[in-house]
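hiii so um. not sure if this is the right channel but i have a protein structure encoded as tokens and i wanna go backwards to a sequence. like what aa goes where. can anyone help
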């Protein structure tokens, strides 16, 4: 597995997939990124990120059957893998450890 570090946008995408669960399709992911993080990526950028996360083995995907409302087109659903869960845990731990080392910084930012 090449490149196991998560970029900020990759982390947001993985978290969004977790939030959406069975509804983690590209359009829903895009809408949720807008709602949760005020990010509205281009479809090409989101598709590239999803593909990259699959190559890193942090996501898996499958095609659902086509529906009449989609003109028979199938849609690809995404799911977090165990490696993806571990990557999110690792990223969360690093961020928390660093924040915990500078508690006064949080106070200066009016967080606490």
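sure thing!! here u go:
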């Amino acid at each position: 597995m090449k490149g196991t570090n998560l970029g900020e946008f990759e982390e947001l995408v993985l978290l969004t997939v977790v939030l959406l669960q069975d509804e983690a399709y590209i359009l829903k992911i895009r809408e949720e990124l807008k709602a949760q993080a005020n990010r509205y990526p281009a479809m090409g950028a989101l598709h590239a990120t999803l593909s990259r996360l699959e190559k890193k083995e942090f996501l898996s995907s499958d095609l659902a059957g086509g529906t009449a409302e989609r003109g028979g087109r199938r849609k690809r659903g995404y799911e977090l893998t165990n490696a993806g869960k571990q990557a999110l845990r690792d990223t969360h731990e690093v961020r928390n450890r660093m924040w915990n080392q500078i508690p006064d910084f949080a106070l200066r930012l009016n967080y606490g």
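oh and The radius of gyration is 16 Å.
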